[in-house]
Amino acid sequence: MPSKPTVDVNRLPFRHADTWPWRWLYRLYTSSTTLHRLVSRTKWYRGDDGGTPQADGKTACGLSGQFVMPGILSRMGARRCPACCDAVGVPHGRGAPYNSGVREPGCQGPKEKT
Ligand SMILES: [Zn+2]
Fold first, then answer.
1. How remote is the CA of residue 114 from the centroid of ligand 1, in Å?
2. 99: CA distance to ligand 1 center in Å?
3. Whether this model's pTM surpasses 0.85
């Protein structure tokens, strides 16, 4: 059972279906691909490789810095940060919730475009 969210899920960024790729990112310049839930984003840009979307922001577990949008393999299989999961009320596990069939409270799922 996921815990009750400790953040106001109705104020999280990227709640709409079209912005789902920005919800769970991993930290830049680390060997970890643990996915964290962004709760704010101050800017975004393309990485040095010319294409990978990156963002400066803060996560639900309290990290701040530069984050990278995961590729498909990480998006499907990387570990979700347990503290971020607890903060937004999703179960611990692997893969971005949107890609793993997990409903993220306050966020639109893939078939909820309006
Ligand atoms: Zn986290």
1. 29
2. 17
3. yes
The DSSP symbol for 78 reads: S
Question: From the CA of 38, how far away is ligand 1's center (Å)?
Answer: 8
**Cα 109 to averaged position of ligand 1 atoms, centre (Å):** 21
Check: CB of residue 89 under 8 Å from CB of residue 66.
Answer: no
In a domain, 98, yes or no: no
pLDDT digits (tens, 9 = 90+) for 32-83: 889 999 998 888 888 777 788 999 999 999 999 999 999 889 889 999 999 9
Sign for the pseudo-dihedral over CA of 77, 79, 84, 88 = positive
* Full residue range of the structural domain in which residue 32 is found: 9-88
The count of structural domains within the chain is: 1
